[in-house]
Write a structure and sequence with these properties.
With 368 residues, this protein is of the alpha+beta class. It contains eight helices and 22 strands. The chain folds into two domains: 230 residues, Rossmann fold, CATH 3.40.50.300; 126 residues, Beta Barrel (OB fold (Dihydrolipoamide Acetyltransferase, E2P)). Helix 2 packs parallel to helix 4 and helix 3 crosses helix 4. The N and C termini lie far apart (51 Å). The structure holds adenosine-5'-triphosphate (ATP) and magnesium ion (MG).
Length: 368
């Protein structure tokens, strides 16, 4: 097991800056997820750790040793890719043991390690089969097994589950979490699936355009996004972003939304950004409740679409003066119907304010 440290790592492909100045310390035994949209540099960053991509500038340390110029095979890492890349003419056991055979390890040792890995992954009965005789999920297990037998210091995963259907993906996600618990090995896991990131990670690193936007525990990022990008990227259904205006009123600051404007929230302190008083209210669908639209602090809205999901319901509502529909998530079934007028109430403890540049504005709800 080993720690991994990235110091001011950058990568350019000609004029394309894929990774810019990324610094990050990954603790021994930690499971860190790189999360971000397509093209943000996740794979490039991982491939630099693996030694599959040259580092343009910065330092990479694994277990305290500088690794920039060390060959991939000598870094003590094992990587699992999205494409399983199994040898089609070899059996499962041969695929899993191949790296050890190449290293000239004794056959008995290789067989023992393959058997151990197969037991962990519950694929013992598949050891004699060829890859073409396996399902997608089974192939992915073999690919993980091939990494396990090498007993790496660090596991690297690049979207290992994205070729699987939703059910199998959820199942394999749990297995990877259990594998991490059992082996205790440092893991870096790349995905663009925020649910995978939220459920697996000790720590999530959110990347955007080659830079780190924010890093922290899943719940920390979910509850305290430093900017609009992070707020919008984590959470399903997505956070609502509602144009709003800060208005001072006595000692407090109020937030006005819609046309005609309603003062829907009161803040005890708002460190107003240089951008001025026009802000965006970030509020997750489950932080909005439905109240009497005649209430003074309620924001009236019309129900446009109702989705019944069984355990919960989603209302898509139109607020006068706002372009985009607001999504509201309610527990259980809902009796609200299309065209009905409802009142929205935003949970003052769970709203976020963003300035014109998308940065989070410090705010604290007024006592009610
Ligand atoms: N070999 C290459 N030559 C030129 N540009 C590249 C090369 N590899 C990656 N890039 C560019 O670097 C950027 C980051 O790519 P990368 O593959 O790391 O993204 P990613 O976050 O893994 O995306 P995805 O989720 O789609 O896999 C992209 O703009 C990509 O086009
Ligand atoms: Mg990628």
């Amino acid at each position: 097991m080993a720690s991994v440290e990235l110091r001011n790592i950058a990568k350019s492909f000609g004029s394309v800056e894929a990774v810019r100045d990324v610094s990050l310390s990954i603790g021994d035994g930690e499971l860190v997820v790189f999360l971000g949209p397509s093209g943000c540099g996740k794979s490039t960053l991982l491939r630099m750790v693996a030694g599959l991509e040259e580092i343009t500038s910065g330092d990479l340390l694994i277990g305290g040793q500088r690794m920039n110029e060390v060959a991939a095979a000598d870094r003590g890492i094992a990587m699992v890719f999205q494409s399983y890349a199994l040898y089609p003419h070899m059996t499962v056991a041969e695929n899993m043991g191949f790296a050890l055979k190449m290293l000239g390890k004794p056959r008995a040792e290789t067989e023992r390690k393959v058997a151990e890995a197969a037991a962990i992954l519950q694929i013992e009965e598949l050891l004699g089969r060829k890859p073409k005789e396996l399902s997608g999920g089974q192939r992915q297990r073999v690919a993980i097994g091939r990494a396990i037998v090498r007993e790496p210091e660090v596991f690297l995963f690049d979207e290992p589950l994205s070729n699987l259907d939703a059910g199998l993906r959820a199942q394999m996600r749990v297995e990877i979490a259990r594998l991490h618990e059992r082996l205790g090995t440092t893991m870096i896991y790349v995905t663009h699936d925020q649910v995978e990131a939220m459920t697996l990670a000790d720590r999530i690193v959110i990347l955007n355009k080659g830079r780190i936007e924010q890093q922290g525990s899943p719940l920390d990022l979910y509850e305290k996004p430093v900017n609009r990008f992070v707020g919008g990227f984590l959470g399903q259904p997505q956070m609502n972003f509602i144009p709003a205006q800060l208005v001072s009123s006595g000692g407090a600051t109020e937030l006005a939304v819609g046309v005609p404007a309603r003062r829907v929230l009161q803040f005890a302190n708002v460190v107003a950004a240089a951008g001025g008083t026009i802000v965006e209210l970030g509020v997750r669908p489950d932080s909005i409740s439905i109240v009497d639209p005649m209430l003074e602090t309620a924001l009236p809205a019309h129900v446009v679409v109702v989705e019944h999901l069984g355990g919960s319901s989603l209302l898509y509502v139109q607020v006068d003066g706002l372009e985009e529909l607001v999504t509201v998530e309610l527990r259980g079934k809902t009796a609200f119907a299309r065209h009905e007028t409802v009142g929205l109430r935003f949970d003052p403890q769970r709203v976020h304010l963003f300035d014109g540049g998308g940065k989070q504005i410090e705010s604290r709800a007024a006592e009610e």
